[in-house]
Amino acid sequence: MGRYDVTQTDAALRRLLETTTNPRHRHLIQVCDLYRCLRLAGRYREIFTSGITVERPVWHFNALGLDLILDGREEIETIWEEWTKTGQCIFYAAGEKLAVGDDMVASTVLLYQQTPGQSLAAIEGGVDTAATYLIANVVDLTWLFDDQGRVIRQCSWEIDPSRRQLIKLDAADVLSPQQAAQQLDPLIKSAAEHVHARTVTG
User: Fold this and answer.
1) Quick one: pLDDT at residue 2?
2) Left if phi > 0, otherwise alpha if psi is -120 to 50, otherwise beta: which for 88?
3) How much is the pLDDT for 1?
4) So what's the pLDDT on residue 199?
5) Alpha helices of the chain — where are they, by DSSP H?
6) What is the pTM of this model?
7) Chain centroid to CA 71: how far?
């Protein structure tokens, strides 16, 4: 294994869960954890079939020079499918600060997104198109929920594009979605059990 650990990407969420007693808040944290882990594992389709989103969720993405509002499963899946094919579904996190309320989970985090140089070439000059990089920057993330605890909207904001950094990865540190899925499977199963139990019991 390389020096980056995808199983720790949601570590701050799990620490927040340890100190949260409100049942509604605990459920939102666990839904958020499951949502994020499924995407990290390239299992994004399950996000829409597991009952953790509304029928027509929205994703507002403002980063890497893009400002997109993706409305509904089909539009969101178009991006996530491409990210899974290219390994861009792999994220690492550092210094995440989180807050949870009755209808929202909010985060500020130093986020590292794995990205092939070939994909980066269109937005960054001087990259090695044969290499793989981590794109690093501080990002604000929010998830909004309905009264059933399902995700309505996710918002992702790159706070200051001028502070974006590129980290060239050694081959040993490049993770495939298949490897991520294998590593994350126990965490996904645990989160799914809790979310399902809450959904069944109310």
Assistant:
1) 56
2) alpha
3) 43
4) 53
5) 11-18, 23-40, 45-49, 73-86, 117-120, 177-201
6) 0.93
7) 18
- Distance between CA 24 and CA 122 in Å, rounded? 43
Contacts of 148-152 with CB under 8 Å at 24 or more apart are 148/199, 149/24, 149/27, 149/28, 149/31, 149/198, 149/199, 150/31, 150/51, 150/52, 150/53, 150/54, 151/31, 151/32, 151/35, 151/52, 151/53, 151/54, 151/57, 152/53, 152/54, 152/57, 152/58
Could you tell me whether strands 151-158 and 53-63 are parallel, antiparallel, or unpaired per DSSP bridges? parallel
Tokens representing 172 are 């040993």
List, for residues 23-39, the tens digit of each pLDDT value.
Answer: 999 999 999 999 999 99
Asked if the 6-201 domain carries CATH number 3.40.50.2000, the reply is no
Side chain identity, residue 155: C
What residue ranges of the chain have pLDDT lower than 70? 1-2, 198-202
